[in-house]
Structures are given as C-alpha cells and as structure tokens.
Amino acid sequence: MGFAVRKVAVVGAGPAGIATVKHLLAEGHFELIDVFEQQANTGGVWNYSSYAPLNELSVPQTSPHQPLEEPRWDLFKPGESSPLKPIFVTPMYDRLESNIPHFMMKHPSDASLEDEPLFAGHESVLRYLNKYAENIRHLIRFRTQVYDIKRKAEGGNDRWLVCIKDLVSNKVSERLYDAVAVASGHHYVPMIPDLPEIRGWNKAYPNVISHSKYYRTPDDFKDKKVLVVGNSASGLDIAIQISTVSKHPLLNSRRSEAPEFQRKASWKKELPEIAEFILPSHTHSHPHQTIRFADGHVESHIEAVVFCTGYYYSFPFLSSLQPPVIVTGERVEDTYQHIFHIKYPSLAFVGLPIKILPFRTFEGQAAIISRIWSGRLDLPSKAEMKVWECGRIAERGAGRKFHELGNLEDLRYHNELIDWALQARSEDGRNMPPKWNERDHWVRKNIPAIKKAFADKGEARHSVRSVEELGFSFQAHNTRGAK
User: Fold this and answer.
1) What is the pLDDT of residues 230-263, one digit of tens each?
2) What pLDDT does residue 287 have?
3) Which end of the chain has the lower number of beta carbons within 10 A, N or C?
4) pLDDT for 54-93, tens place per residue?
5) How many CB atoms lie within 10 A of CB 169?
6) What average pLDDT does the chain have?
7) Closest by alpha carbon to 98, among 469, 470, 461?
8) CB–CB of 134/107 below 8 Å?
9) DSSP code of 462?
10) For strand 209-211 and strand 140-141, is the pairing parallel, antiparallel, or unpaired?
C-alpha cells in the first residue's frame, strides 16, 4: 500500500509527539510538518499543575465521549507566571517519581537521564523532554487546540482538514494535510465504574470520591480513613504516599492479588472489589460512609475514596470520523499494530498501548510511521490488517486488554517494530532506535522489586543511580542461570 504524503500534522508535543516529529524529520522527505500543542510547553502529561478541581469530576464516569477540556488562565498571581499560560488538568502529582529506571526511559538519540536518581522525579523528566525537543520547537504551535479533524477524499487519496483554535486569541482556522499523527495521549477522561449506589453515596458525601487524575499531595488525606481502588503502578505509589499521613491501615481494593512483597505491607489492608456503596438511609445497621466488598466485608467511616482505575481512550477532535474510532473507550477501533487506522491509514496513533516502557515504544512506532508515509516501507493490504485486528480481538478481547502489552510483550512488540523498520528501502539504520536486549528484559521483569528496594532507601534513594547499587546484578543472574 503506497502513500503520497508530503504534509503532516502531529497532534501533541509530549513524549509521543516529540518522537514522531524527530523520525519524520529524519526521513528528509516531508515538505511540511506542523505540530499542535494546547499547552504552553512540550512534555505533555509531564507538565505539573497544582490545579485539580475535584468538583468537576463526574461520579461515576462511564463514557469516553466528553467535550474538549477548556483551559484555565487565572491560576497564577502577577509575577509568578505568564497570564498567557493555559492550564490543563494532568495526572501529574507533586511527589511523583517515575516507575521506570531512567536508562529505560531516555530517548536513545539524546542526552540521558542517568545523572538523575534511578527513578527520576517528574521535574527531571520534564526538563529532559524539554531539552530533547529544543531543535523541533520551531515546528510547534503552542497554545493551539485541535478541535476537529475531517477526512477529505481527493483524487483517490484521503486528506485531512485539521481545525484548530488559538487559545489566546480564540481565532479558529483550518489547514489541509496528507496525513495526521495523533500523539495526544490517553490520560484525559477518568474511568470510574458505575458501582451499586455510587451516585447516591457521592451525593450524600460530596468530594469524598476522587480519581488519581486529581491527586496532588498526600497532605489532603492527613488523619483520614482512606480507600484506594486499583492496583496499577500509580495506584500503589499513591497508596504508599497517602499512607504516610493517613490512618492505618490504608484500605486497598483490587481485582487481582498483589505481589507477595506488597501483601506483607503492615500499613495497608487488602480487600476485594467493591460490591456496594451503602446509602445513609440504609445504614441503620452500619455507621455512615460505609462500603461493602465482594466477600461481604464492610468498612465504615471511610473519609476518602481514590479510584486509580485508569482512563478511557478519548479523541473528541476525531468525533466526525465514520465509522467512529471510539465506541466504548476501552480501545481504539479499526487499528493495525496499535498504530494505523485500517480504513484510513494516513491517520496514525502514537502511544495507544498501555503497561509499556513508553518512550522507546513511541520511538519504534514513530520509526514505522515515518518510513511508511515516506514510501520506503509498505503496509499490508487493508484485508491483511483487518485479519491482524480480528486475531488480536480473538486473543485479548475487544476491551482494555486489546492495547495492553504487559508481561514483557511491550519489549517484544518494540523489537518487532524495529525488525519491520529495518526492511525499509535504502535503510542504513542510522536513525533506528535500538532493540531491547537480554539485560533489558531482565530489568523489565524485576522493575517492581527494584522500585521497592529504591523506595526502601528513604531519602538516601536520591543518590542511587543504578540497579547494582540496590543489590541487583544481571551478571550474577546469568551466572546462576548457567549453573
């Protein structure tokens, strides 16, 4: 399948967008690359803001079909920041440290994060991304929101009318492109399940239920009885932070059993899924703020519930595309290899997979997109791409697991992308991201234990730069495996 792509629009200047632009430029083929970013800086989700309006959270939140977020402009006092800096709510919190070792986060072609602690803080990651993006800033239109993308069929090719809004002047305009790369992330619409009586409970006890997107600091939970729902990496990190100031034990409701080293934690109490929120009118046999769990256990006087239950895929600016790319919000419809829209492959997505090592995955996806759109690499037929999607659904289902690449699948996926990219015509490999090696696989498998050992160092963790300093040795692992 060939392409006649010369003009490309990239939506988003976070890690995925930066990687995409770098690889598009490296092709030396495209005559126009425009990047649209609604924030005032590069870095995407790594931009921190203390702004977290909990009153804007819908409980439950079960639909991905939400309008574009409106920016806030009035958060800074004179002298603190430019009044022209739009603020959007991101899931970045005050004390966030990466859950991935720095050497597995860095973009391979630029300065590393290895002068930072092994698990770098969000400020360090943002500085790194800003530095990495320095030579592409001239291509980025900041404070510019993409509000619609319309397909135009011209001469047998799909073209894309990108409708944008300058957030400072409110001026709207349109531009026509041959291809669009959507790299805007998927941490926009929180997922809060519609559990029995959750609506009435939230109305009776307003601002008790929240979502990790709105978490900023553990100080808000001081001396409170807290329930954290979910067992993701961020959920565990938030639970640990809150437990330093909350009542003990902190309650943790989760679908799957925690790893053994987490189950032994004395500061928390493991509970199954929530079965029911008990309304005040039904609490004659229970105190207020009561929740019943799947095993029948009941907890009362719960003063804060934090759902760490992930996000829906949501792209409001693609709502006019038919058939829709978003239906349930649990996956993106009609995609090949988590990248290309099957029916309209001049529309591509960067960063759809979850439970991944993100930065290197973005590089691999961007390497494929740039080579295919420049004509150096071929896509399979639409029928073959549809077979891949159907096979993925048969294997993983049509829900959230479709884009999930856990249990080292993300490393295999990246390496397969690189093998594919190396098949490009006139390929010299100079701009090719490296493949994950055997040591990387070993580190990836041991990240939870490495992160725990890092956290156990307390303040001394800030001086740790390598996994070896924490007692982990790939060489020793290999030696034991050879015996």
Assistant:
1) 988 888 999 999 999 999 999 999 987 666 655 5
2) 72
3) C
4) 888 999 999 999 999 999 885 555 555 555 789 999 999 9
5) 8
6) 92
7) 461
8) no
9) G
10) unpaired
